[in-house]
Design goal:
Elements: H1 2-27, E1 44-45, H2 47-50, E2 52-59, H3 61-82, E3 87-92, E4 98-103, H4 109-117, E5 123-129, E6 132-137, H5 139-163, E7 170-174, E8 178-184, H6 189-197, E9 202-206, E10 225-233, E11 239-247, H7 250-257, E12 265-273, E13 279-287, E14 292-293, E15 297-305, E16 310-317, H8 319-331, E17 337-341, E18 344-347, E19 359-363, H9 370-386, E20 393-401, H10 403-432, H11 434-456, E21 460-461, H12 463-492, H13 497-529, H14 533-565
Parallel strand pairs: 1-21, 12-18
Antiparallel strand pairs: 2-8, 2-20, 3-4, 4-6, 5-6, 7-8, 9-14, 9-17, 10-11, 11-13, 12-13, 15-16, 16-19, 17-18
Helix pairs in contact: 1-11, 1-14, 3-5, 5-9, 10-11, 10-12, 11-12, 11-14, 12-13, 12-14, 13-14
Length: 573
């Protein structure tokens, strides 16, 4: 029996040693002692303690709905062609989630209803005027699409932020279409905005070199916009020429090009970096249809062009993307293919031959030095690997938390814990004597075990988390109060101290367990359904409950036992 108590003592001592070792990286200089990094990375401090960046983003869910309507419009066209149903036009409404279809008089109306209207169950027929049909996206589908767009945006942002190597970022949904992001310890606001806010919608489109809509506007050009001659080649070997617009005023160029693109095409801009960092924009007339998109990517990595000594992003497509890429490059040989990222032309290389294997490249039009271009390539490959956002995001709130606020919070946290401990220690000793001292020792070990556990598992300590620790101290003392009062009661009943000691722990256990269990249930729900600081409070509370149960019941009982074995007949309670 004595051997069992000795093993318990050694077990507690081993836990204390392990806890101290686990906390060393949090309180010692890891640069001076690099071996500490092999233990753990120390306590992670939250935004309120460490400082960092706080963003609130709004997801343009209406744009996500309209994009889905546009894609399904293309699918309707493809379906009509596959079923050989003659049609005059298929157009998506630019404002409402509707598609208007005009079929030919010789078309089989019943076949159209069966093979198109009934096939696309995301739409419902809301109007018909002769051969013209109006399909409107269903309300339940629109709502699900908006919710999934925000959820997908959260997962995409989490992948991008994880790639930055940040510890314990907070990424949660707020309201119906907003996202809260907190990056503790991160200071580069501009890079964070660039990576987080970039939609990264990658598309491959064919340049419409066979059309020249700007030729009719060569006279009376606005100031600051010039037309220049471009040349291209058709797939059958013929030569074509066309005009493209150039300006250093992006907004003016976009405004002038508006409504000048023929049906089925659109003007997109390419940003060119000239000498001394001056930017210039040139127009590309491309087909609206995107043959490949970023969701077909399997990898995006940084490589270096050995001839030019310039970094670029190498792309790899999945099996379906590789097949489409081979078909498109085979069909449009000698034509230009625009690589479009977020509605901006990155480059428009000439397709020299059919490209098999599903690989492509994105060059960076930068006059920067090698290291700057390499950093840009790494960031671009990062967002492409993480996937494109389902819709554009807008920064509603952007602020940084400085280290002074964090330091102030830490100092207040230290004072609150120290003051709480001091008051409890004094009160317990005054009221319970040596038993109170044992309870105080258990409190110190309780704090040690909580902090060590958080350091070992990379949990984040926040200011509400410190509040959770302080609350745990009160609950731990409450357990020892119950035990001591039960021991007093058994002593009044005439039992010896040894018997009263055993009965006190035995009969106080149920009350201690029930009170901690109910608090743990509440903490679990806070952790499961809460977010941000609420979750930080819940985590420390749950860890504290487990630790306080162990120290208040197990540790103090072992200390009591060895105190009595040392020859003390009675301990003040």
């Amino acid at each position: 029996m004595e051997k069992n108590w000795t093993m318990r003592a050694w077990f507690i001592l081993s836990l204390v040693i392990v806890a101290v070792v686990l906390l060393l990286p949090s309180f010692m200089d890891r640069e001076k002692y690099p071996w500490l990094n092999k233990i753990n990375e120390g306590l992670n401090l939250g935004l309120d303690l460490k400082g960092g960046i706080h963003f609130v983003l709004s997801v343009d869910v209406e744009k996500a709905v309209q994009d889905r309507v546009d894609r399904q419009t293309d699918e309707i066209v493809k379906r009509l062609e596959e079923e050989k149903i003659p049609f005059t036009s298929v157009k998506a409404d630019p404002v409402d989630p509707k598609v208007r279809i005009v079929i030919n008089a010789e078309s089989d109306a019943e076949k159209f209803r069966d093979k198109v209207i009934d096939y696309f169950r995301t739409f419902r027929k809301t109007g018909q005027n002769g051969l013209e049909y109006e399909l409107t996206m269903r309300e339940d589908y629109i709502q699900n699409l908006k919710e999934s767009s925000v959820d997908q945006a959260i997962e995409t942002l989490r992948s991008r932020i994880d790639a930055l190597g940040l510890k314990e970022p907070i990424i949660v949904k707020q309201g119906s279409n907003s996202i809260l992001i907190q990056l503790p310890g991160y200071k580069d606001v501009e890079r964070a905005r660039s990576i987080i806010g970039q939609t990264a919608q990658l598309e491959f489109k064919i340049v419409a070199e066979d059309k020249d809509p700007l030729a009719a506007h060569a006279e009376g050009m606005p100031a600051g916009i010039t037309l220049q001659q471009g040349r291209g080649q058709t797939s059958d070997g013929g030569m074509v020429s066309y005009l493209y617009a150039v300006s250093d005023n992006k907004d003016a160029l976009i405004e002038w090009l508006k409504d000048k693109a023929p049906e089925g095409t659109e003007f997109l801009l390419e940003e060119l970096i000239k000498a001394e960092g001056k930017k210039e924009y040139m127009s590309w007339l491309v087909e609206k249809k995107a043959y490949l998109t970023g969701d077909m990517l399997t990898d995006a990595r940084v490589d270096v062009d050995q001839q030019r000594n310039r970094p670029y992003v190498s792309l790899s497509f999945d099996r379906n993307g590789a097949r489409i890429f081979e078909e498109v490059t085979g069909k449009f040989i000698k034509r230009k293919m625009a690589i479009v990222l977020d509605n901006r032309v990155n480059s428009a290389p000439v397709i020299q031959t059919k490209i098999a294997g599903g690989n492509a490249m994105i060059t960076l039009n930068s006059m920067s030095d090698f290291n700057t271009t390499l950093a840009e390539a790494k960031d671009l490959s990062l967002v492409l690997r993480a996937g494109s956002l389902p819709a554009p995001v807008t920064f509603e709130e952007n602020r940084t938390v400085g280290p002074s606020l964090g330091a102030d919070s830490i100092e207040k946290g230290k004072i609150s814990i120290a003051a709480g401990l001091l008051v409890v220690v004094i009160a317990m000793i005054i009221y319970y004597g040596f038993s109170g001292f044992i309870a105080d020792l258990a409190l110190v070990l309780n704090v040690l075990f909580i902090m060590a556990f958080m350091a070992a598992f990379g949990a984040t300590l926040t200011f509400p988390g410190i509040a959770g620790i302080v609350l745990t101290l009160g609950m731990a003392v409450d357990a020892n109060v119950l035990i001591n009062e039960r021991i007093r009661e058994e002593l009044r009943n005439g039992h010896s101290f040894q018997t009263a000691f055993e009965l006190g722990y035995e009969r106080a256990f149920s009350a201690i367990f029930d009170s901690n269990l109910t608090t743990a249930i509440a903490g679990f729900f806070l952790w499961n359904f809460g977010s941000g600081t609420v979750k930080g409070f819940a985590i420390t509370l749950l860890i504290g409950i487990a630790s306080s149960m162990f120290t208040a019941i197990y540790v103090t009982k072992v200390i009591f036992h060895f105190t009595m074995k040392s020859g003390v007949k009675k301990i003040s309670v």
